[in-house]
Amino acid sequence: MEKANLKFIMWLDFGFKILRCKFYLDKTRRSSFNIKF
């Protein structure tokens, strides 16, 4: 039970990171600034 819960939290965190990254990319793409890192 404990291991399954940890795995679920890990996947949730992973998915959230991907969503945040996608949102950030969409935001920068829409912005008029051309910032390159």
What's the total helix number?
1
Backbone structural class:
mainly alpha
User: Ranges with pLDDT <50 over ≥5 residues?
Assistant: none
Report the oligomer.
Answer: single chain
Strand content: under 5%
Q: What is the helical fraction, as a range of percent?
A: over 70%
- Report the count of strand segments: 0
- What is the overall pLDDT average? 82
Order of helices and strands: H
* Cα distance spanning the termini: 43 Å
Care to describe what's here?
It contains 1 helix and no strands. It has one helix at 2-30. The longest helix is centred in the middle third of the chain and has 29 residues, at 2-30. The chain is rod-shaped.
Offer a quick outline of the entry.
The chain is mostly helical. It has one helix and no strands.
Please write out the topology.
Layout: H1 2-30
Keywords:
37 residues, mainly alpha
